[in-house]
């Protein structure tokens, strides 16, 4: 049973206390008896405890920095949305394959931003620029936002903000089941709540510190019953011994658990396992005993943005993965929409 995330150490930037949410969180953490330290900026957080890299890395992942989001320009977030909306950064999970390991670098602590109204105002500008087209915002590009939201409620505010807009839609994905505080949010059907799911082998070996699949599925049913549009991201799709049967079991579990009347508006996104050379180095440093297969010779190289290419599966393997998983979705969820396979 994975308990809701509770930081061992909290840093608060002075500017965060100029915002009501910053003041509220400081009082909440003081009342909880957590250790609170001041920091001029998240970049100045240097004294994470630990005798070696692995200890410091693990302690950083249980450290929360309460700060102000300075950059209000949003990154693009293809293919899942037009823009990434920045509510938090970093994740308390320990997924071996995660790309956040390279983007977070030596600072894998979790950051939450208290200037939510400024962030929503910027989102409004993006919506106005694109009108009359709909604009989708992805809230989980740089974090598992659900994993920290029981403490901050920033995501809940965002859900209710987009619930009142005509031209905006919110999306996010999680591996955590701590969703109860979001069930009564006034979402108006404008937020798609997605869960990351995978074969049992992948969750067991590569996703420590996250909720078990059965709890994610239970949470998905709660969310669907609360009227949210529901989605699943199958990622990373990973070739392992018995993978065909492993993924079939996954879809069977989803089919059995989700009431039939709630299976009408479900989306699936599928992402095959990939890695970059920098990611491989960081993964092996942070998780030296990982079983994650990252042999460049076995993969094909695909050029990526910013000149950093990815190693993905060979064409015939990719075809087999796609055809197999799409056939399972067609069989179990004929009314679902497959948004993409990449």
In brief:
Helices cover 35% and strands 20% of the residues.
Key descriptive features of the protein:
single chain; 342 residues; alpha/beta; pyruvate-formate lyase- activating enzyme; eight-stranded mixed sheet; five-stranded mixed sheet; 11 helices; 20% strand
3D architecture notes:
- The structure is a single chain.
- Helix 9 (243-257) runs parallel beside helix 11.
- A hairpin with a 7-residue loop joins strand 13 and strand 14.
- The model has no long low-confidence stretch (mean pLDDT 95).
- The chain has a single domain (72-90, 115-341), classed as pyruvate-formate lyase- activating enzyme.
- The protein is an alpha/beta fold.
- It is globular and about 55 Å long.
- It has an 8-stranded mixed beta sheet, with helices on one face. A 5-stranded mixed beta sheet has the order 2-1-3-7-6, covered by helices on one side.
- It has 11 helices and 15 strands.
List the helices and strands and how they pair.
Blueprint: E1 9-12, H1 20-31, E2 35-38, H2 53-60, E3 63-67, E4 76-77, E5 81-84, E6 88-89, H3 100-104, E7 110-113, H4 116-130, E8 135-138, H5 146-152, H6 154-163, E9 168-174, E10 191-197, H7 200-206, H8 213-225, E11 230-237, H9 243-257, E12 266-272, H10 277-286, E13 300-302, E14 310-312, H11 315-332, E15 337-341
Parallel strand pairs: 1-2, 1-3, 3-7, 5-8, 8-9, 9-10, 10-11, 11-12, 12-15
Antiparallel strand pairs: 4-5, 6-7, 13-14
């Amino acid at each position: 049973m994975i308990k809701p995330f509770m930081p061992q150490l909290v840093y608060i930037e002075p500017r965060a206390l100029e915002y009501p949410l910053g003041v509220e969180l400081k009082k909440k953490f003081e009342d909880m008896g957590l250790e609170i330290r001041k920091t001029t900026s998240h970049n100045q957080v240097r004294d994470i405890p630990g005798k070696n890299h692995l200890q410091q890395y693990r302690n950083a992942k249980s450290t929360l920095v309460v700060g102000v989001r300075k950059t209000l320009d949003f990154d693009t977030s293809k293919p899942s949305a037009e823009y990434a909306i920045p509510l938090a950064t970093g994740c308390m999970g320990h997924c071996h394959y995660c790309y956040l390991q390279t983007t977070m670098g030596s600072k894998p602590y979790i950051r939450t931003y208290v200037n939510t109204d400024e962030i929503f105002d910027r989102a409004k500008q993006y919506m106005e620029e694109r009108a009359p087209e709909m604009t989708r915002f992805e809230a989980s590009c740089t974090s598992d936002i659900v994993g920290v939201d029981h403490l901050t409620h920033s995501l809940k505010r965002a859900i209710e903000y987009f619930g009142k807009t005509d031209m905006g839609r919110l999306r996010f994905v999680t591996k955590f089941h701590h969703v109860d505080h979001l069930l009564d949010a006034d979402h108006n059907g404008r937020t798609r709540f997605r869960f990351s799911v995978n074969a049992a082998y992948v969750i067991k070996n590569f996703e420590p510190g996250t909720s078990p699949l059965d709890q994610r599925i239970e949470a998905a049913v709660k969310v669907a019953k609360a009227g949210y549009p529901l989605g699943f991201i199958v990622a990373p799709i990973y070739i392992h011994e018995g993978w065909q049967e492993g993924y079939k079991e996954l879809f069977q579990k989803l089919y059995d658990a989700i009431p039939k009347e709630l299976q009408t508006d479900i989306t699936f996104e599928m992402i095959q396992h990939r890695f970059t050379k920098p990611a491989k180095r960081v993964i092996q440093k942070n998780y030296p005993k990982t079983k994650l297969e990252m042999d460049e010779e076995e993969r094909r190289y695909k050029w990526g943005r910013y000149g950093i290419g990815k190693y993905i599966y060979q064409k015939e393997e990719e075809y087999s993965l796609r055809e197999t998983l799409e056939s399972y979705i067609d069989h179990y969820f004929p009314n679902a929409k497959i948004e993409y396979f990449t």
